Amino acid sequence: TKGGLPGYYPPIKGKRPELIFNLYDPFNFFEGDSAEKKARGRLTEVNNGRLAMLGIFSIISEATVPGSVPALKDMIPPYDGNVMIPFSGDFSIFS
Predict the structure, then answer these.
(1) CB of 79 within 8 A of CB of 65?
(2) Rounded distance, CA 37 to CA 12, Å?
(3) Cα distance between residue 50 and residue 85, in whole Å
(4) How far is CA 42 from the centre of its chain?
(5) What is the dihedral of CA 38, 44, 49, 52, to 10 degrees?
(6) pTM of the model
(7) Closest Cα partner for 8 from 33, 50, 43?
(8) Which of 42, 4, 36, 37 is nearest to 24 (CA)?
(9) Which of 48, 50, 68, 49 lies closest to 58, judged by CA?
């Protein structure tokens, strides 16, 4: 597939009653922003997502191997289960 514009989120609008507003920007707060400001906002959004991924995987790493993330030492309780179950798509655990 062809890539899209990083950080761009298309408008969510539809004919259903709950979608009468664009769910990303319902009151058009960003309508008058310049192209540079929108580009900076998209870059900020991508970087925030990257930082969130680093954060969650550092917590998973510390829970799996205590002491692997020195900044989180003794803050995260050890976990003996399979930490990758939420990422496997195998939801048979709930049946």
Answers:
(1) no
(2) 21
(3) 21
(4) 14
(5) -150
(6) 0.64
(7) 43
(8) 42
(9) 68
What are the φ/ψ torsions at residue 26 (nearest 5 degrees)? -65, -25
Structure tokens at 54: 């680093």
| Cβ neighbours of residue 5 closer than 8 Å, sequence gap 6 or more | 42
Residue 62: burial class (beta carbons within 10 Å; 0-12, 13-18, 19+):
buried
**Per-residue pLDDT of the chain in tens (95 residues, 90 and over written 9):** 577 777 676 777 666 776 777 767 778 888 889 989 988 988 898 899 999 999 999 999 999 999 999 999 889 999 888 887 777 776 665 55
Question: Side chain identity at 73, as an amino acid letter?
Answer: K
**Signed CA dihedral, 29, 49, 84, 67: sign only:** negative
The whole-angstrom separation of Cα 53 and Cα 57 is 6
